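ERR on first pass: missing label on line 2. Operator R.T. fixed the label and resubmitted. Corrected input:
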Amino acid sequence: MKYMTINNRKVAFDDEKNVLSVIRKAGIELPTFCYLSELSTYGACRMCVVEDDRGKIFASCSEEPKDGMVIYTNTPRLQHHRKMILELLLASHCTDCTTCRTNGACILLKLANQLGVNYVRFQNNKPKLPLDYSSPCIVFDPNKCILCGDCVRTCTEIQGLGILDFAHRGSKMRVTTAFDRPLSETACVGCGQCRVVCPTGAITVKQNIHPVWKALSDKDTRVVAQIAPAVRVAVGDKFGLPKGENALGKLVAALKLMGFDQVYDTNFGADLTVMEEAQELVEKIESGDLPLFTSCCPGWVKFCEEKFPELRKHISSCRSPQQMFSAVLKEEARMDTEEKRKTVVVSIMPCTAKKAEILRPEHRTDGEQDTDYVLTTTEITRMIKEAGIDLASIKPGTMDMPFGLSSGGAAIFGVTGGVTEAVLRRLVGSYEPEDLEAIKFTGIRGNDGIKEATVNLKGREVKIAVVNGLKNAGIVMNGIKSGEMYYDFVEVMACRSGCVAGGGQPVPVTPQIKAARTEGIYEIDDEKQIKISSDNPFAMALYDGLLKGKQQKLLHNHHE
Amino acid sequence: MLDQKYYDTADEIIAIHGADQSSLIPIIQDIQTEFRYLPGELLSYVAEKIGITEAKAYSVATFYENFSFEPKGKYVIKVCDGTACHVRKSIPILERLYSVLGLSEDKATTDDMLFTLETVSCLGACGLAPVLTVNDKVYPAMTPDAAEDLIEELRGAE
Amino acid sequence: MQRISSAEALNQVCQSAKTKIDACKCRILICAGTGCLAGGSGEIYEEMCRLAKDNPDVEIDFKPEIACAGLPGHGLEEEARAAVEKIAGARKDAEAEGIKEEDLDDFAVKKSGCHGFCEMGPLMRIEPLGILYTKVSVDDCKAIFERTVKNGDIIRELLYKQDGIEYARQEDIPFYKKQTRVVLENCGHIDAEHIEEYIARGGYQALVKTLFDMTPEEVIEEVSESNLRGRGGGGFKTGYKWSQVARQPEKQRYVVCNGDEGDPGAFMDRSIMEGDPHRVLEGMMIAAYATGAQEGYIYVRAEYPLAIKRLQNAIAQAEEAGLLGENILGSDFSFKLHINRGAGAFVCGEGSALTASIEGNRGMPRVKPPRTVEHGLFDKPTVLNNVETYANVPGIISRGAAWFKSIGPENSPGTKAFALTGSVKNTGLIEVPMGTTLREVIFDIGGGIKNDGTFKAVQIGGPSGGCLITPQLDISLDFDSLKKMGAMIGSGGLVVMDDSTCMVEVARFFMNFTQKESCGKCVPCREGTKRMLEILERIVAGNGKEEDLDLLEELADTITETALCGLGKTASLPVKSTLKLFREEYLEHVVDKHCASHTCTSLRRFVISPERCKGCSKCAKNCPADAISGRIKEPYVIDNERCIKCGACESACAFGAIHIEW
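pass 2 clean. output:
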């Protein structure tokens, strides 16, 4: 064990990769804008500067910890420099904090308060740049960008997309797309991971709150909500609930108070997805038309279309749980002759890309858009607050039936490997604890970016890859393309860790918070009596009812 | 859409330097030398050929001062404003040229595409300060009047 | 050129090339550095070549007695006789070496690199006597050919004169006499476009010595022992750097030469690359051998097209001669060299930005560690030195570390090249032992202040450097002494300023430069330099406040202590240093709105003399700011609050009634 002295206190460390990590381990919250442990060290914000015993000042994010080091994190010189850096940033930043969407989560504002920056001695003479509203998923406001590069590195290093990059240099430097094109004209998949890491309001979720409030207040409209698996373990974040706690009941109660007519579970849709996808896999194994790629993540689907169009045909024809469920809900509404009101389906999602998914042409039935609006967890959080509801103290409510019932297999769609695990459960079809455990330990759980498993299905070894993060998806796709890799079944989630860390979830999304949410998801599964989708009685009833003869129309996409 | 010959030239240039990320700068330098500017379409084309994202190529091209997405004039005049030239009064020369050519800091090229006026931080010809260059030919010990005469001379040669 | 496949073969090439040069009866070296080319030396070269071509059978009769006629006291006579003997001797040697008579030149015209005395260009050196003609024009060529070439008659009008003395020989001119030329020893003396000329002067012998007589460890040991410190500005110990690369486990390694000399007012590296490119190549090859590198890159500023051309030419010739490529000189050592042209970014002079640029990225410095010696170019261990550092290496190997250490002070041995510019009589490129004082450089070599002005300050180290003033003229020019004074040697730009220079404006100028060249990555440099520039612009425009000076210092402190890279850290040095040395001048601008050196035009006042004014109203009509008022036929008045100091009124007045007050 090695030691360093931080603010006259001896701190042990072993394999921390930089001094900053040791400082934070010691419980000192050194401020940063550009340091994220999952990304490469950029070292641009200079907020994490520390002073050593010889008076040398250096950035702790990029210094190797050495045994016997003596450092100070809060000397008057450092305080002065940090305040000056903040003052400089604030001087070039717009000051519409009161109306900023990131108000409450803005790290710039938080640190300015925390460090007591009470005046700005410079004038902001930066020309105002236009906002990019072109994406249905996110809004980009260059005026609020502090050039920390977190989004650029996330888009490149984690997602392998490189849609956003720096352009120009010096005081003219900006984060932008190639040739400053609107995001809608780029290969942006709308995953929203850039928004998750943005410390200010430069990248925010495209808001759909207003039309939803309008629908809710319209007597001639029936508003139906569906809640995605990963929302329930994150929605409590901004209400002081423990991280990762399942707040589904409270959310249902809040939605009812806000005027939603029915509140259903997207997990029900996930059960349908498991049924369809398991069947497709069996058919493909039999016909040998493999590999089969999952289709529930719209970020991934767009990625595959943009970057690997030649592999597009391997994506499952199954619609995503959201789209299967919305199609069913709308079909049901159309069949209901007694219901005179218009039905609006609002899905509450952890995901920004879902906002783009609902606009795709294949997701319209009989000329009608299946899902009307997507609200991300952050938007529903805001609406709950706007409605004056305290989620923490509200009494939990219950989902409406029949679409409120779902299996444990559906619940775990919110984490990487969940779809695969649910499909395997369905295909193995066993409730024996050892069988369930066997599936769990095939290697599909956990936080690795590319996980591999081999299972025996129908007397055949089936090779599976579970991928999260689009950069990893690119690696696997290139491997498949070149023939260096072979898999029968590939699950891809665009976001690292899966939907729990989706682009529409409350921030921050630290590794610890991701872990807590993942744990929350698995707990929900553990508590479920029904583990396998095919045991969802209401889902099965649907096949004999509404879905009869309409399985293809409502649950599958028909490309080409 | 650019003429096919632009893409053919780009292909030749890429072949010389190799389709590799580290060749990006030499490739677009040669393209710029060839066409006197860097057509955006070709930058995207090169990015695809050498396997980098378009945003990255744009990011690199906008970082360096030498690259211009706007076609430059036939004569590129660079007025040196390095220390030695500055001390020996280079700014009045620049101002005179701006006024003679009807250009400004925001408008670098004349409408007839004959002249582009730029400043450069140091040409390393400090002993001859103040200097300017026209298409890399150095003109030493300039004055505002001499600069104006030079413009007339170049115009006359057209 | 034939492939040279062994050390002996190189010796033979050296010997015959040397003999050929020595046997030449008259050899003219026309400076083809950027400076002289701009002065028309290219045309002079063409003209001399034409004369040579038109007169193939020219009879060259070098008569010592004519050469010295009219130039008594130059001691030329004896030397001239010795030269005649030497030529005769070389001709005999040629016969012995089997060189045919027709392969020997009587008269040769060569293009050389920069001679350094740029102020007096275009320059022409005539051997064997080493006569230097200054400010030569095309019109002089005929006379030079008829008189000097044909029979050695010296044209006195073309000689350099100082304090009533004419100097015939280049080496006697005070500008050269006080210099010690080590890295520049060949600059101006050889034809930079022919490898034989470099070889003739002992070129590539150091490489031979390393390849065949020394182990890589011994090479590093020798360089370490010499205490050579990086000439790029940092002064980092070269031998130590090499040893760190050599001990990396990764075997793929690179040698990179930083030729991105971006400091305004510095052109030492350019002159070396243009004038003696093979010396740089040889230095890099020795570094590669010592550190086990297989490939090298030279990164040259785009603004140096001639340097790029000469280096490309040198590499091609070295490859052809087998001095680059596989199994150099028959040894196991192989080395490949590439040239990368910069694309216009000063920050690429910073090591990690430079390697990023070679890799095809934005030239943004990155955080360290990891250091370049561990993870440099393409993430491999990399030796990164600047041009002048590499140019020092062959000398250290050939003559030994002890010789090198005998020049200059112990902690900063060797020589340093400087670009001497600004308000000094003899601008140009110089090389002096480290430890020479500023006074010697500015007054003895530079000849003092131009137009007999008064010395005010010298700016050293470019935009990352500071100013030194009269009391500091006697400090020694070396890494450590300058650092103590809050300045730095930088790459070696010396800009001399006289009392007509406004130091606030100088600070603004440098801040404008660094601000424009900031890569934009780290907050203190990107935002801080912008704010410092704003304040300085405010001050020179007459809108400064006293508290602005404190704010400047505050900003400078934060930038210096927190910026990411070396350029950022030193960006505020010119301001810090002028604030310290010339605070009065700042206060004058801020409080009295006065610029003593009459530089800051916004601080001048236009005044109408009532006694001269005829009241014609022309000034008022020409005023774009409506600042002039009055009644016809009565004296007009300028409202200085509204006046924008454009001077339109002054040029409009037909009666000279408007004058400027400072």
